[in-house]
## 1
Amino acid sequence: MAKPYIGAPIKRREDIRFITGKGTYADDIKLPGMLHAAILRSPRAHARIRSIDTAQARAIPGVVWIFTLKDIGEMAVPVPMRMYKVPGLERYLQPLLARDKVRYMGEPVAVVVAESRYLAEDALDAIEVEYEDLPEVLELRAAMRNEVLVHEENGTNLAAVHEISIGDAARAFEKADYVRREEFRVHRHTGNPMETRGLVANFDVGKRELTAYGMTKLLHYNRQVIASFLKLPEHNLHFIENDIGGGFGIRGELYPEDFLIPFASMRLGRPVKWIEDRREHLMAANHSREVTCELEIAAKKDGTLLALRARIYGNMGAYVRTHGGLVPCSTAALLPGPYRIPNYQCKVHCVITNKTGMGTYRAPGRYESCFFRERMLDMMAADLEIDPVDLRRKNLIQPEEMPYEIGLTRPGTNPTVLDSGNYPSALNRALKEFDYDKLRPLQGRFENGRYHGIGLAYFVKNTGGLEPYEGARVVLRDGPSVTVYLSINVLGQGHETAMAQICADALGVPMDWISVFHGNTDLVPFGWGTFASRGTVMGGSALHLAAQGLKKKILTIAGDHLGAGPAELDLQEGKIYRKGTEAPALDLGKLVALVRHSTMHNQGQPELEETAYFNSNKMTHSYGVHLAHVAVDPETGMVEILKYMVVEDVGRCINPLLVHGQAVGAAVQGIGGTLLEELVYGENGQLLTTTFRDYVLPSSTDVPAIESVVLEEVPSPLNPLGVKGAGEGGMVGTGAALANAVSYALSSLGVEIKELPLSPDKVRALIRRRSAEQAR
Amino acid sequence: MKPAPFEYFAPQAIDEALKLLQKYGEEAKVLAGGQSLMPLLSLRLARPAVIIDINRLRDLAFIRSEPDGGLRIGALARQRAVERSGQVATQCPLIAAAMPLIGHFQIRNRGTIGGSLAHADPAAELPAVSLTLEAEFVVRSTRGERAIAAKDFFLGYMTTAIEPSELLTEIRIPATRPRVGWAIEEVARRRGDFAMVGVVTLVELNGNDTCQNSRIVVFGAGEKPERVARAERLLCGKRTDEHALAEVAKAVTEDLDPVSDVHASAEYRKEVGGVLTRRALQNAFKRAQKETA
């Protein structure tokens, strides 16, 4: 039996292309006659548009067209919600360009199309818009008072409410020995893929077909929406994704620009390119994470958890975008985490403000809820004088309780069910790998001017599912070689390698025979996409099924030729064997030739191929522990991470190098979000962080070497590979583990972290406040 | 993010550059390493009609030791060259120590000494260091050359005493005196970032290790780097004991009047300015004590 490819640490085959600068990104697409678009964005947070004068701008040589919402006319539709359509949200969708009023700084007002991007930006400068400023509302509580209405016609800024009620929380709170109430807040920040958004749309006037490059994440769904907007048949649109420099939830969702640029190309009959610049990205692409939680916990004296009660407020920004209420609703959905909490009550509020619209960012809602819950558990552990690890151990769901149904925590009728896992075992493993017992004496100790703290957070993250299916097509060709066509998209995860591994094992051919194609709506007719860590779970499973199906076909035909039943044959490393014999009975190359030239061997078909779809509406749940050892300088508020570890069980690991890379990359992003990044609004609703000088991302010199331990203790029963998604686990626990570590470090000063980020300024402010309180 | 239109000149000789500056004056911006100017152009925050690219003026890229122990650095010397210069390390170790705090090495490969000083970002290291060292700035125009003392060079937020027709050509660092210790301390959000606040100090000790002369310069906490005169006076005649340093630090905190921005509040800058002063002075005293007279 040949050594399986699944589980082998195989280097990414796409690396050479990326590392040597040979990738093809949206901006690399250059078509004859191509025009360039730039978007005029509102500099105001909330204002009525009195007039827009484009006369001067239109007069600039090289400016081809300038359009506003009026010019789109009857075709104008708002950007639709794709998911989490909590009733009420539909009243707050974003128009393609501002209509009468602008509601956040960065809102598109007009589009310039010119012969070059330089000229297009010159024209932006020359457009005169007269605004009448309105008072703005930025913060949740102020917005809830409805004194300033972002959408007057709706009469309220509370766009929607979603309620969860499991068990009887009120009764549990009455009976509890211990209750505590706290308010936690996660700050606004978001994903920053190295490649910003961008697309090239090319409308073929003769064929009435539109090809769009640079689309990603959800090609088929996006195509459907844009086709309906352009009033073209879906199959007349070809969406092609190229290489993509990162997604993280933010890239590949539909935004106004995804309608405006194809529209411009169709109207002008010429290719139009739009590349988002970083300033636009920071103010116009989805923001995320800004969620506040009033959390109450109830427990017995011995630490047994009885109930959670929460009020969650999501700052949705000015418009509800494609994700609907996902971010605050997902915060609520997994708030109980990996613990047995029989009573859970939660009310989620989606609140509209004059900020940029909210969407997902890697581990949306889970990063937030993990911080809320794991902080609360540490506070409770201190109150009850229970060791924080023991407290968690006591309440973790046990392996024999799996699958464990939490109940109905999401809008809709699908209950949240933790599919599988050995939570206590992962905790034990994490403590051992981190050398927790050895480090623990450092807890709170002051050494060389810094306080040490060790914090941990247990996380569980739903992966896969969400949309019903993914497809894959596998074709055996001359050479012999194998081509794989996927319906999922690739935003840099390494699918060209991992999928080849899956296919090689299922089919029984050498991996280097296999080429993986993806990111084109013409390759596979149906599909959803790559998000919620579902690529391998859904697309990988579809591919596994297709490859298995093709293998069966191959063995049947080979059997016909060899005069043997398919069950007597096997396919290994590209050769057909009679079972129990050493010498191959037939070479696959010969089989391909046989089929191609003599069609009787394959029921009249020259092609050896199989298409399969994997259907599942159930979610797999990866889980694990984040651990952090920090040192905090109390005089400067600087937090240094001395050691950071992510321990994550992914069910089954296709490629440990890729999973490790995902965990490390996600942890770095999570650390950045926790310590450095924040989208800050100032006076008059001005976004102050519109460059990387103000919005600070972690670089290689700002993070420690992340240690990642990948576990495969419990495969998921929900798919043939047993896999769970590995894209987000490295992110989920970062805020929680670091906040716990810093809280332990500063416990002698009485500091308890309840808000992120942990910037030096904010850490100092907490210390200052506590010492002032203690002095009184 | 594309610059507004501008005319571009790449003079081959200093005189040619000076003529262009004479001709275009305030309409022109000098491009050296471009590490600050290029983003400003792309964001259209700077819209000069003319760019004068001085990168071909190789004569301005020197690092020279003077017989008296002083140092002369050409405005076009790359920051990385200064960082790696043996002469700089021996004759002015404070400059050598400050260099790695400027951006990352990729930035320093391109960024120039003169560019950073002429740009005069209040949170940048080099302006504060040159003020501490009482450096001299040599500027030239078609009318001739003049030298400006550091204390007269930095006028305000990103504003220097360089006239529109002048080009910064050289920085002169006086020789280090015996029994002098130095230190630079800063806090930044990330390694290589502009400082939220920073302190550069110099102390000169007499025979019994008391301070007879000091300079305390705070940067990132105002419109420009500033000496804190009251703190310097307080330190005079003091030895390095905790009480004395705490008193000096307190004076710095009290005398700073910084602004708040997205990275830090004014209060943070005041407090931490004091903390860094204490830390910098401790290090400076230690270094001075090692120096023999």
Note: The interface with chain B takes residues 117-118, 121-122, 125, 277-279, 635-638, 676, 678, 680, 688-689, 691, 693-694, 696, 698-699, 701-702, 759-761, 764-765, 768 of chain A (CB under 8 Å).
## 2
Amino acid sequence: MTTNEVTTPIESEPARETNYLNATTGIMSWLGTLDHKRIGVMYLVSVLMSFFVAGLFAMVIRIELMWPGETIIDQDTYNQMFTLHGAIMVFLVLIPSVPASLGNFVLPIMLGAKDVAFPRLNLFSYYLWVTGAVMAVAAILFGGVDTGWTFYVPYSTTGVDDRGAMDGVFFLTMAVFVLGFSSIFTGLNFIVTIHRLRPPGMTWFKMPLFLWAIYATGILQVMATPVIGITVLLLAVERTVGIGIFDPSLGGDPILFQHFFWFYSHPAVYIMILPPMGIISELISVHSHKHIFGYRFIAFSSVAIAIFSFLVWGHHMFVSSQSPLLNVVFSAITFSVAIPSAVKVFNWLATLYKGSISLNTPMLYALSFIFLFTIAGLTGLPLAVIATDIHLHDTYFVVAHFHYTMMGGALTGMLGGIHHWWPKITGRMYSEVWGRIACGLVFVGFNVTFFTQFVLGSLGMPRRYHDYSGPGWAQETTDLFHSLHFVSTMGSFIMALGFFLTAGYLIHSLFRGRRAPANPWGGRSLEWQCPSPPPVYNFAEPPHVGDCYDFSVLEWDEQEQGYHWRRDLAHDAGEA
Amino acid sequence: MTADPGGSATKSSPIVDPRSRVAAGVLGLRLFLLSLGILFGAVLIGYVVVRLSPALESTFEIPPLPRGLWLSTLFLLCSSGTIHLALTGVRRERPRRLRVGMVATIALGWAFLATQTLCWISWAGPLRSSLAEAQRAFLVTSFYVLTGLHAIHVIGGLVPLTVVTSRAFGDRYTSADHAGVRYCAMYWHFLDVVWLVLFATLMVAA
């Protein structure tokens, strides 16, 4: 594992004081650790490895679609590729991405605490994640899955007889079940930690906004995830015992499956996007060195999004034959989600206004988040209108929309967070120049890939199609789609280049990066008060709790290449 | 291990004060029970939706629910009482009452599972004859799925219950420090409530 490399001491440089990375050594000191920082790092490495695998599947899909007809894979393999891409990205990458990796690392330190409330449960959650990942691999080995990541019935219930009940679908749905409990325990742990471990002086409205986002996410994890758990469990029972719950041929109700599935999977979208939104609130404020604008509005908008998210699942099912009245109600409530989302965007913009903006890599990611997430939100509205949704349903417009949310939003936010906290996590600075170049490549590549898909979708290209030529396709349509798909795939190569570049300079920084100061960006939240990387116990003395967005007390130290407490104020702060 | 100026001597928890540690545990368990409650709620809603679907309108001759379920309900209700007895016992520093309460709860838990097993066996006949007919199969097998799901949680509850009981015999609990007993009692009452709702739903549906 790459985590081992982190522990390797560098001979050429003077020995540093012990920190969480070098306090104990050996693979077992990592695998059995109860330290939230190490668990966070293990999650980060695991999640990024899954991202790499699912990203490869995405590239296979894109290359297949570059030319009409069969290019590199046949249609059955293609079905498996998009299913695995979706399922791995959603359940193994995006759901645990920010909370379990960065959240685990940062949350207790932001609270000035030694660890999360239940360290053993935290490690247990990680191993549940690992179990889920192993089962996902088993699913690939046992014949793969071609149902789409949504496991819609009857795709997921037919074919049992000729393939046996214990096939890829069974293992992948059980993986989702196990991963669900990993997510529940993580959310539960964070909620209790925020309730019980806030330091004296840090009231709810003095918490960093990242913690509000994690808290709202925790509520969703605890309350929505059991529904997907029981749904996939019933699906497995249906497949093994033959009881008709969802399968219409056995007297079951397939629409019930869709209701259950989206009752979780819509809130799950916010499990993925709320924590990155929290990161953006931190990044925008810290890197423009200006107090966050509208703190309470941003905090409450996270909670509002969490509540709304339970009431809009039906907008995934406008064409599923659910009642027209329900459609209208779900459509109306869906529009209201735009309000708290826009509240956040406007407050971020107001924070930037007249700020002293440092355009370093985390800030570039934050700005690209705002741009991409705005497109994501605005293209969600035509999908919430029933009339236009019927036209756009199951086209590339939907694919482009949720990639703008999940990748342009969640993943961009996570990348911003990784760069923001990288000095704290590893104690090393990455190359700022390469960071900006890679961010630019990802931004350009992303837009070329997915903006093209908005055009493709509105022209009528259906999603999940292996081919767009042959009988039934007009030649000019095929030619048009071919050129657009070609451009889209070119964009994905640019994006891939950006990701490889990012991996390259980040790994390089572990060995050759400049030593990071305690506070390289000028952040005020508590994690910037402990050394980089933090010691095992995080804080030798209780840190100084104040307004975590008041940057007037910090000043730049040229020699240290970081910020510290203003000397004229040092006497009443204690910590610098 | 490294020096720990945080100074928490406790096993792994970062919370030094035992009282807040228990408060954190209680909050955590409540959230977990909320989560499990939603899980059971969802499966019951699913059951009711399929049960009420037009496809199942035509009435089948479903065998009446096994009478033994009333007996198992009685066992589970009593066990909720005995674990409450154990909890008040430890709070009032009466170790004998704690031990009796815990042992009785475990015994009643096993009695519940035994009765459930007998009920399942008594329904095996209808199960076999119904499997041929898809819609009728749902009515019979769903009974096994619902009660089985609950039984798994009872088995899951008996494990910590046994651990806590053996600790109770080792005089590990005092009126000030008895988090284990409290957690067990919370979980056990939860199982009781879930069973009552589940049983009522089955009765109405049948």
Note: Residues 134-169 of chain B form the longest helix (36 residues).
